Amino acid sequence: MTSFENPFDCEGMWLKGNLHTHTTVSDGARTPQERVADYEAKGYDFLALTDHDRLADLAPLADSRPVLLRGIELVCANPTGGPGYHLVGLDLPEAFRVPRSKQIQTVVDAILDAGGQAVLAHPYWTGQNIKDLEVVAGAFAVEVFNTTCEVCIGKGMSAVHWDDLLARGRRLLGIAVDDTHHATRDSFQGWVVVRAAERSPAAIMDALCRGRFYATCGPTIESVRLEGNRVSAVTSPVARINFICNGSSGRQVRSGDGAPITQAEHTLGGHESYVRVECTDQAGRSAWANPFFLR
Ligand SMILES: [Zn+2]
Ligand SMILES: [Zn+2]
After folding, report:
1. Which helix (DSSP H) or strand (DSSP E) does residue 192 occupy?
2. Tally of domains within the chain
3. How far is the CA of 39 from the centre of ligand 1 (A)?
4. Is position 1 within any domain?
5. Buried b (16+ CB within 10 A) or exposed e, 35-57
6. Which of the ligands is closest to the CA of residue 126?
7. Average pLDDT over the chain, rounded to whole?
């Protein structure tokens, strides 16, 4: 059994960040300077600039308060003949060169070889299914929520894609991102909260890769614990808390009278391969903790 680290059992500081952002370096409506200032004004601790096909120059932004991560988004070919992927690379060196081949695995491997990390971006929006996704190895996370995909065409939520991969035994984390393109309409609606040892790119990436974070569109997850066969969660006031497992296992908890709840628990039956917690508040905004693997 290999589980990620539980951010609620770790030491460290909680840092809020957006891991998918476009600027005028590609098709975003705001310059890198404006984008960083926008997120700084909203209290974000870190921001990944992930323009299409090009790395933003972070040197002029060196004095920004948010920790900046150098990233990129690349459209990649699908070996199954299905729709092309959007792949986000995070924490890339300035010298990163986009590989000539756009085959998905070649691009993932190039990102990893350069010391970065790869994210499967917005699979619902891209039109991918499990057959498209299970052939890709090495991505550390999938976008369980993407703001611009939600506000533009209502396809921001890729929880089913994540669960399909988890049910097949893939150790994949779930992140929420804005994928900001417009000036304002797709900002500040999906983010991650990371438990990091310090405010630095290395510490933030380390915490991300260890699973020391949760993803959210608004609710706060105060704790998620697995003790024996009992899973428990404490959250900000929400309408429902789901314990999501493979197949038809799991449980939804809500109050009988529609009043908000702030905690729930679930007893596992012993046959589940993973369990994760998600909650949704009365405004319809969700948050997602990362999975525990049970076998
Ligand atoms: Zn994309
Ligand atoms: Zn994007």
Report:
1. strand 191-196
2. 2
3. 20
4. no
5. bbbbbeeeebbbbbbbbeeebbe
6. 1
7. 97
The β-bridge partners of 32 are none
Distance (Å) of CA 122 to CA 38, 133, 141, 190, 263: 23, 11, 11, 12, 29
How would residue 3 be classed by pLDDT, with cut points 50, 70 and 90?
confident
**pLDDT number for residue 251:** 98
Distance CA(215)–CA(279), nearest Å, equals 11
For the chain, the first-to-last Cα distance in angstroms comes to 5
pLDDT band, very low/low/confident/very high, at 1 (cuts 50, 70, 90): very low
* Least distant ligand from the CA of 26: 2
Looking at the fold, whether 144 and 229 belong to one and the same domain comes out as no
The enclosing domain of 238 has a CATH number of 2.60.40
Among 215, 244, 265, identify where a domain stops: 215
Q: Which of 168, 165, 158, 170 is nearest to 20 (CA)?
A: 158
184 residue type, one letter: T
Ligand 1 centre to CA of 73 (Å) is: 7
Mean pLDDT computed over 84-97? 97
Rounded to the nearest angstrom, the distance between the alpha carbon of 27 and the centre of ligand 2 is: 9
Instruction: Specify the amino acid at residue 100.
Output: R
The pLDDT score that the predictor gives to residue 2 is: 56
Closest ligand to 76 CA?
Answer: 1
- Nearest residue to 78 via CA among 131, 124, 146: 131
